[in-house]
Amino acid sequence: MAVPNHREHAHSPIAGPGLTAVAHPRRYRRLLWPAVGSVLAATLLVLDAPVVQASTPGAITCGDQITQSVVLTQNLTCVGTALEVVPAQGPITVNLGGHTVTSTAAASTCADAAIVLAGLSPATLENGRVLGSGPGVCNASPGNVYQHLTFDGAGWANTASDSQPTVRDNVFIHGAGFATGQNTVYVEYNEFLGGPPDDTAISAPLVDGVISDNTITGYGVGMNLGDSTISRTVSDNTIAGAGVGIEITSRTQLGTITGNRLLGNEGDGILIAWQASGGPATVSGNIAVGNGGDGIEVQSTAGGTVTFADNVALGNAGHGIVAPSGSVNDGGNRAAANRTPPQCVNLSCFG
Fold first, then answer.
1. Does the N-terminal or the C-terminal CB of the chain have fewer CB atoms within 10 Å?
2. In this structure, is residue 19 part of a structural domain?
């Protein structure tokens, strides 16, 4: 299945009444002239879409169903669901306009989420803050996009079996996190800041998908990617000061774990327990420095082929790199100053 490339989307400031501006630094910019025609076509479609301006306090109220594109112009504080987005026909955009949508319900289910996207057509939710103590946004329809949002205390939860959402360029603060069931998801360019030690920033037992270019500080677990039945790509993420950086339990295929930076976590930087045959899998280009356990540890009890290449493990309390027996060494693996000998287990590496 082709994986869409979302790496060129920019952060933009989010500000409005009751909302502190959060600057999203530009990470990448590329000018793709061949894509100009597609961009213009998409722009014309957006301009042609109907837009409802919520210009008066009574225009949108708690529990309203949103069936067409809308721009919010005031904060909403509701007991339970504030907005239910149900596109009537074709994709729509719900622009929070820099405002805050709050659910005061102390619930752990999507029934009382601040915003629920539940239509048969995709929607884009953007530009605002979602506040609460339970799920802030619940995704129950296919192809939705969540971007330029601040999740404050309230997290993101997924209720559908394979809805393929895209979650990009968002900020998660005050314990907010991303949690999904077994789905195809694209989680990219998000920031998870200062999470508590009993929470997980990203919890996603994926069937397939991409988790890339996210930054995580704190939290008990940076990423818990659970069980996988196909594959996933976990790339170019930075996780610092968590309990465990990346934790994966996979029963069949593992996928590609590449280019991640694991810095000063209390446990292992990367911990992968592979429980059944499958693969192949690649662990490459990861950097694990100053973690309280092993820098990179991959356990395999079923003989799946894991290829290691160009990983760096320095100054970890455990081993530098622990590979399962029979792993493929593609070279360039480096381990030094790790406090538990040998520097690498079942793998040749240099200092």
1. N
2. no
Centre a 10 Å sphere on the Cβ of residue 57 and count the other Cβ atoms it contains.
Answer: 9
**Residue 43 tokens, joined:** 């722009």
Q: Could you write out the DSSP letters of every residue in 23-50?
A: ----------GGGHHHHHHHHHHHHHS-
Residue entry with tokens 């077994």: 182
Over residues 84-126, the pLDDT tens digits come to 999 877 899 999 999 999 998 876 778 888 999 988 889 999 9
Q: How many CB atoms lie within 10 A of CB 106?
A: 9
> How far, CA to CA in Å, does 311 sit from each of 21, 307, 322, 337?
37, 11, 11, 15
Asked if residue 6 belongs to a domain, the reply is: no
Q: Which residue positions in the chain have pLDDT lower than 70?
A: 1-58, 107, 160-162, 182, 227-230, 250-253, 275-279, 301-304
Cis preceding-peptide flag for 13 (omega within 30 of 0) = no
Question: How far is the CA of 348 from the CAs of 1, 302, 326, 334, in angstroms?
Answer: 35, 21, 12, 9
Q: Is residue 9 part of a domain?
A: no
- Report if residue 185 sits inside a domain: yes
Q: Residue 226, Cα to own-chain centre: how many angstroms? A: 14
Inter-CA distances, 105 with 101, 112, 117, 139, 273, Å: 13, 6, 18, 18, 37
Count of domains observed in the chain:
1
Instruction: Output b/e per residue, 155-170; b: 16+ Cβ within 10 A.
Output: bbbbbbeebbbbbbbb
Domain that holds residue 157: 39-345
Q: Which of 147, 198, 205, 195 is nearest to 11 (CA)?
A: 147
pTM above 0.85, yes or no: no
- The rounded distance, in Å, linking the Cα atoms of 53 and 227 is 43
Query: pLDDT digits over 166-195, tens only?
Result: 999 999 999 999 988 767 889 999 999 999
- Separation between Cα atoms, residue 151 and residue 19, nearest integer Å: 12
